[in-house]
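Re: your question from the hallway

Yes, I did run it. Sequences:
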Amino acid sequence: DTEVTQTPKHLVMGMTNKKSLKCEQHMGHRAMYWYKQKAKKPPELMFVYSYEKLSINESVPSRFSPECPNSSLLNLHLHALQPEDSALYLCASSQDSGSSYNSPLHFGNGTRLTVT
Amino acid sequence: AQSVTQPDIHITVSEGASLELRCNYSYGATPYLFWYVQSPGQGLQLLLKYFSGDTLVQGIKGFEAEFKRSQSSFNLRKPSVHWSDAAEYFCAVGAYNNNDMRFGAGTRLTVKP
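Structure:
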């Protein structure tokens, strides 16, 4: 069982839809991450929240909008996506936001997103 | 910025045989190195990590990895592979004082009966 919970597991949406991906952890971690993973590719970093503030945004298109309501929750709001945005979206958390030292990432099982 | 290279896209080994997966990193200072495993449709699970100290680190599921600074490598090994080890393996490198962890392209492991 993973300690990072992502919902939904699967999502199919049209290009005009608005949907949200949710992520929750109760390990007391203060950094949370969104990664995008295409088939047979490594995870690509999208966003990092450190102490509930956005600290890294890897030039992600504005149709992806992250939100961190509190230290345990992370959302990714989706609007007007394109078919090429179809991928596995992984949430992760780590203990120490200031450094990856001593702070490996703990991943959820992801949300498989299909944009039609 | 740090980066990592996994030279082998796909490796096939027989069950019971030994395994070595290669990883080379690029970073100007002391790297923080990780190996993760991903089964189909799942998230990534941490196998082991290296920060400092003993260059041979032990992980879960019988895996170990050796940090060699002179070769900028952090290869993953297992003495005897089990069929359940078939998965995608990612090497990752982090840097001190940032949250930017970079992953290699991954190595897909197939285990023959």
